[in-house]
Amino acid sequence: METHVPTRVIIPKINDEKPRPWWSVMIPTYNCAQYLQETLNSVLTQALSPEIMQIEVIDDHSLDDPATVVSELGGDRVCFYQQPKNVGHIDNFATCLRRSRGKLIHLLHGDDYVRPGFYEKMTKAFQQRPDIGAAFCRHIFMDDHGHWQSIYELEQLESGILENCLEKLASEQRIMTPSIVVRREVYEKLGGFDQRLICSEDWEMWVRIAAHYPVWYETEPLAVYRMHLDSNTGRHIRTGEDMRYTR
Asked: Which segments of the chain does DSSP mark as H helices, in order?
């Protein structure tokens, strides 16, 4: 009998009675220890108490030493988990989602960072509109050395529910992963990232969310995304894979 393998990662509900934090900041890493200090600092400088904010680094069996960075900078405040072998970025994302316990999940790549006010603004969005499935902010592109290159264009003039969200997100990849926060229950209902995809798995995820939930847009640029040749985006643009998947 043929066994059905789900194409989208199943994220189980949390059924235990242990207290849950409001936030889960899950930081997937792979060979980016040189950038991880900046990433962690951006979170720790605005971190809430452990009862409110879970912070965890999930490493995909890197060849460098992210554990030392986490230990020296995060101490007991930041948990560290390393895959027993390299599983690839989509499965590493799945581990992040499954290990999360918060009601809101922020996937923050280990080579990106958030600006002051990110968690405050995102918290207010979910409090103001309990019906939204996700909230994202305008983002900044930086280069390999951390120099800002550009600020993504405004989607609309005021913060709030993104108008014509599904059409906008389906027509173009407008959201960089570090700029978006998703309710955990949304991943539980819709599943995680699509395992069939080599790239654009984030784009497909955001469109899927927009097809089922309102999405909040924050006009202030509070997330910074690093463009370099070793990133997923840089690698696929370099090989042409991104263009084929887009088509």
From this structure: 33-44, 66-74, 89-99, 118-128, 165-171, 184-190, 201-210, 232-239, 241-246
* pLDDT surpasses 60 at 203: yes
Q: How many angstroms separate the CA atoms of 155 and 152, rounded?
A: 9
pLDDT in tens, 81-120: 999 999 999 999 999 999 999 999 999 999 999 999 999 9
Beta bridge partners of 58: 28, 81
CA dihedral 203, 118, 131, 22 (to 10 degrees): 110
pLDDT per position as a tens digit, 226-243: 996 555 544 444 456 666
Determine phi and psi for 116, rounding to 5 degrees.
Answer: -55, 135
**What does DSSP assign to residue 31?**
S
Question: What's the one-letter identity of residue 16?
Answer: D
The closest alpha carbon to 41, from 83, 65, 73, belongs to 73
Q: Which of 105, 57, 102, 103 is nearest to 77 (CA)?
A: 57
Half-sphere exposure of 214 (CA within 13 A, CB side): 13
- Classify 164 in phi/psi space as left (phi over 0), alpha (psi -120 to 50) or beta: left
